[in-house]
Every structure is written in structure tokens, then in C-alpha cells.
Design brief:
The chain is of the alpha/beta class and 282 residues long. Helices cover 51% and strands 13% of the residues. Helix 2 crosses helix 8.
Length: 282
């Protein structure tokens, strides 16, 4: 474990660090002795996490509360940590916009594309220019299993993650000569606030929710050894099935399955509301 810190430390920067996979990455890096820069929108949550990591692992932390979708936010982030020797950068923040493409407000889609595409690209570019000056460093980009194909009801999200997958594969080759290891992590369904907030019955999908701690461990163990990694055997099968069958088949299949899961969620919500309304009468 010490060699991992010597290779990519002493500081790691993680966006989306307040919950889910980002938080799990921060915890596991702190356990390996990394000092961590924790970036997310909610300062109080970050301060609580920072205190826990400092007390448990005797490390240094830097908390930066920022909405990275705002113009100039990445430059401001870079300036605020310019004095730190950051060797590992993980832009893990992201959002989704579930629903039919034309039913969504474009302003909402555009915000998602900004956070999922523009922000990690800018972070990789801005921080990458500093990382290449180090003896060794790393970048972990977070894509998704949905980035391997089109996903009805997640059109923009899947497309944004397909971009990150392609970007990371390319940077893995381009930056290797500069001793910067680049990995693309593509999680499947993960038990995080991100997935828990979706209006969908995941029990109707042939997927199993993974713990964010497991996904984070897969990412850290793969950095420097792979260009891309999909967490979990079943997810790997889904990711690579397009090489064996026409791409349109899994797109149509997932479209059917997700439509069914959304309807199931809506039915359960309606029944629950009806039950509450009925009980209020007595």
C-alpha cells in the first residue's frame, strides 16, 4: 500500500467527495495515508468527512465547497490548491437526467452535460499539465456501464459517459509517455444517493447494486494496470456483449426493461398514496 502512495501521493483530489463512490475513494485513499482535497457543493458534509478522516488516519485535508458547473469554477479550484503536491486527480462528481429526451428541459440537460462532460475534461486538462511535471501521477475518470451503449430514458447521461470512456482511453495512451496513469472506471448500479433518488424500481432490472466501497477498491487496484475497468462480472458481460451481437439489440432490451421498471415504481407509488389516503378516512 505504501508504494501506491509513493507513486501517486502525497495529495489526492476527489470531486463528488461528499457521498457515494467519491466518498468511498476518499476514505480508502486516506486509509492508505494520502492527504486529500475534498470537493463538493455542501461544505458542512465535507467538513464532517474531513474531521473523520483526520481523526481516524492522521492525515491532512483540504475542504473546497464549490459548484463546479459554474463558469470559472475549475480554474478557481486549481488556484486554491496550486501549492499542494497533488499526484492523483479523481473527478467523480456527476448527475443524471432520467426521462425521455424530448420531455426534459434543455437547461437541465445542458447542466448535466456541463458537469459530466465539460468539467472532468477541464479538470483533466488543467491538472494534467501539472501532473506531467511529476515523476509519476494518476487520473481516474468516472464513466458508467451505461456509457457502453445507448440507454433509453438516459439518453444524454449515457452519451456523456460514452464521451468520458473515449476520452480516458485516449489519455491513457497519450499521457503514458509522461508517466501519468489514466484509468476509466465504469460502475454499474451502485448503492448511492445518486441511484436511490431515481424514480425507478431497480428490482425489475437484471442488475445487482454494488457497494460504493467495492467499486472504489476496484478503481484503486486497477490504476496503473488497466486503461478501463468495469466493476463486477455481470456488468462486464453487459459492457462487452455489444462485441458479439448487434448494438441495437441491447439498446432495445434495456429500453424495454427500464420502461417496465419505471412503470413498476409509479404503480407502487400510486398504491402507497392510495393506502395513505384510505387510512386517513378512518
Amino acid at each position: 500500500m505504501q508504494s501506491f502512495k509513493m507513486k501517486y501521493g502525497p495529495w489526492a483530489l476527489i470531486t463528488g467527495a461528499s457521498s457515494g463512490i467519491g466518498k468511498a475513494l476518499a476514505q480508502q485513499l486516506a486509509a492508505q495515508g494520502f492527504d486529500v482535497v475534498l470537493v463538493a457543493r455542501t461544505e458542512s458534509v465535507l467538513n464532517k468527512l474531513a474531521s473523520e478522516l483526520q481523526e481516524k488516519h492522521s492525515i491532512n485535508t483540504r475542504v473546497i465547497a464549490a459548484d463546479l458547473s459554474q463558469t470559472g469554477a475549475v480554474d478557481a479550484l486549481y488556484d486554491s490548491v496550486s501549492t499542494l503536491d497533488i499526484g492523483l486527480v479523481i473527478p467523480a462528481a456527476g448527475i443524471d437526467e432520467m426521462g425521455r429526451f424530448l420531455d426534459k428541459e434543455y437547461a437541465d440537460l445542458n447542466k448535466m452535460l456541463t458537469l459530466n462532460v465539460n468539467v472532468p475534461t477541464e479538470i483533466a486538462h488543467v491538472f494534467g499539465r501539472k501532473l506531467v511535471a511529476r515523476e509519476h501521477s494518476g487520473i481516474i475518470l468516472v464513466a458508467s456501464l451505461f456509457g457502453y451503449q445507448g440507454i433509453p430514458n438516459f439518453a444524454g447521461y449515457a452519451a456523456s459517459k460514452a464521451y468520458i470512456l473515449t476520452l480516458g482511453e485516449t489519455l491513457n495512451v497519450e499521457l503514458a509517455r509522461k508517466n501519468v496513469d489514466v484509468l476509466v472506471l465504469s460502475p454499474g448500479l451502485t448503492d448511492t444517493p445518486f441511484s436511490q433518488s431515481m424514480a425507478i424500481d431497480f428490482g425489475k432490472l437484471p442488475m445487482f447494486a454494488q457497494r460504493p466501497e467495492y467499486v472504489a477498491s476496484v478503481a484503486l487496484s486497477s490504476l496503473g494496470h488497466k486503461s478501463t475497468v468495469v466493476s463486477g462480472l455481470l456488468n462486464k458481460i453487459y459492457a462487452w456483449e455489444n462485441r458479439l451481437i448487434p448494438r441495437s439489440w441491447p439498446v432495445k432490451l434495456f429500453g424495454f426493461l427500464i420502461d417496465r421498471a419505471i412503470k413498476s415504481y409509479q404503480t407502487k407509488q400510486a398504491r402507497a398514496a392510495a393506502a395513505v389516503s384510505s387510512s386517513d378516512k378512518y
